[in-house]
């Protein structure tokens, strides 16, 4: 069992920045690829970014590429999402997730553990 807790969400103006954190409860955090997803009331949960177990590879949705950066610190059992140049359409609840494999994935089905979500609101 892996418990994930997100933090860092909030209200920011368009063009601003936020950094989300995802703290994992388990010492074997470095066995898992990790990902960020987001969801609004009008849309299904969608992929944002993923990072392999050792941080060696990262992948992004086209909508955030060049603006968001995913990273992890295995010594601290924590993953991050640095979000820059935020847009109103980035407004959503952001979820972190741990994959059942070591490689990154775009697919929700490849993630076995989820956090409770943190709200990000970007005002235009």
How would you describe what is shown here?
The protein is an all-beta fold and about 120 residues long. About 0% of the residues lie in helices and about 50% in strands. It has no helices and 11 strands. It has strands spanning about 5, 10-15, 20-25, 35-40, 45-50, 60, 70-75, 80-85, 90-100, 110-115, 120-124. The strands form 2 sheets. Strands 2, 4, 5, 6, 9, 10 and 11 form a 7-stranded mixed beta sheet that branches. A hairpin with a 6-residue loop joins strand 5 and strand 6 (about 60). It starts with a strand and ends with a strand.
Task: Tell me, briefly, the overall form.
Answer: globular
Strand content: over 45%
**N-to-C CA distance:** 39 Å
The biggest sheet amounts to: 7 strands, mixed
Unreliable parts: none
Helix and strand sequence? EEEEEEEEEEE
C-alpha Rg (nearest Å): 13 Å
Quickly list its features.
124 residues; four-stranded antiparallel sheet; mainly beta
In short:
The protein is mainly beta. The protein contains no helices and 11 strands. Strands 2, 4, 5, 6, 9, 10 and 11 form a 7-stranded mixed β-sheet that branches. It has a 4-stranded antiparallel β-sheet with strand order 1-3-8-7, with no helix packed on it.
């Amino acid at each position: 069992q892996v418990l994930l807790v997100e933090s860092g969400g909030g209200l920011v103006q368009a063009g601003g920045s936020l950094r989300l954190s995802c703290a994992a409860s388990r010492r074997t955090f470095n066995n898992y690829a990790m990902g960020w997803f987001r969801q609004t009331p009008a849309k299904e949960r969608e992929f944002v970014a993923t990072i392999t177990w050792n941080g060696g590879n990262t992948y992004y949705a086209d909508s955030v590429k060049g603006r968001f950066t995913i990273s992890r610190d295995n010594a601290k059992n924590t993953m991050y999402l640095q979000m820059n140049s935020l847009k109103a359409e980035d407004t959503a609840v952001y979820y972190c997730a741990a994959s059942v494999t070591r490689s990154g994935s775009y697919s929700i089905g490849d993630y076995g553990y989820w956090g409770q979500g943190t709200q990000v609101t970007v005002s235009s």
